[in-house]
């Protein structure tokens, strides 16, 4: 079964440092998403990406965040200057189309900012 | 503001019992609802969905019921198994032209053997 792959599984970083979280979506999917989940809380939408541009973003996705599809397979989330409150699980997801249930999530990257 | 929430944060059941997980939503414009299962250390996994023009949909061992009058969604799991232990999220979407799922807080289902 096709999977969304995320690397690394766990990232520890110093406050103020830049981090890049990587994702390989399912190959025939066209829509890509980043979500985050602070420990014990609900899954929160960050951003969606389609046709090489952001299609929607939440208020969480401020200027510290950026996304990129640098090549035909990877989809990255960059946090420019990490804060303690950025510590969370970050999930990448992809879907073939919008408005359908076919969101496939990766297993997540646990980001710990110290 | 509009929100999606769950009535019970934790549900404990015996193996073999039927489980019912409830979800209340307040955005009447939502027209598409999804249930996800999240096992420890993993991402959410799609279980079943339902559109607002339906009130019931069945899958394998799972049934989703939608009551638009009271804005209530439920997930029924038949013959619950230990492997069903996870956190279950409902998500709503479709309001304001956006099809980005908005997740509720989650219910932890614990199945005792």
Structural account:
Chain A is mainly beta. Chain A is 0% helix and 50% strand. Chain A contains no helices and 11 strands. Chain A is globular. The model of chain B has no long low-confidence stretch (mean pLDDT 88). Chain B has 113 residues and is mainly beta. In chain B, a hairpin with an 8-residue loop joins strand 9 (86-93) and strand 10. Chain B has strands spanning 4-5, 10-14, 19-25, 32-38, 45-51, 56-58, 62-67, 72-77, 86-93, 102-103, 107-112. In chain B, strands 2, 4, 5, 9, 10 and 11 form a 6-stranded mixed sheet that branches. Chain B is globular, with a radius of gyration of 13 Å. Chain A binds chain B through residues 4, 33, 41-45, 48, 56, 91, 93, 98-108, and chain B through 32, 34, 38, 41-46, 49, 89, 93-94, 98-106.
Record the SSE blueprint.
The complex is a heterodimer of chains A (114) and B (113).
Chain A: E1 5-7, E2 10-13, E3 19-24, E4 31-37, E5 43-50, E6 53-57, E7 65-68, E8 75-79, E9 88-95, E10 104-105, E11 109-113
Parallel strand pairs in A: 2-11
Antiparallel strand pairs in A: 1-3, 3-8, 4-5, 4-9, 5-6, 7-8, 9-10, 9-11
Chain B: E1 4-5, E2 10-14, E3 19-25, E4 32-38, E5 45-51, E6 56-58, E7 62-67, E8 72-77, E9 86-93, E10 102-103, E11 107-112
Parallel strand pairs in B: 2-11
Antiparallel strand pairs in B: 1-3, 3-8, 4-5, 4-9, 6-7, 7-8, 9-10, 9-11
